[in-house]
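Check this:
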Amino acid sequence: MRQQSPGLTFKDIRAMQATVPGLEMLSPRKRFTPSQVIPKPQGELPVVYGVEPNYQQIAALKIASGRFFTPEEAARAAPVCVLGEAARVRLFGLTDPLGSASSR
């Protein structure tokens, strides 16, 4: 029995877009298990999901600092991410990672 829904897959999204008229926003959600995370987290690895840029609106995510990734960044698979507060602290402690060399 699943404890959490895997969300919509890329295959689900394509099928829905092809068959369901009037859909305004959809985003697949794919859980990834990174083989390496830099910097090394303090404690467990953060949970990592791949989503589309419109996921911010769908999930009503509030941005505390920085920004969400753009459709252009998603299209070219740019090496960007959005961190929740717990993941930011595990990876960077109390240091603000925005704009630092270790966050690039």
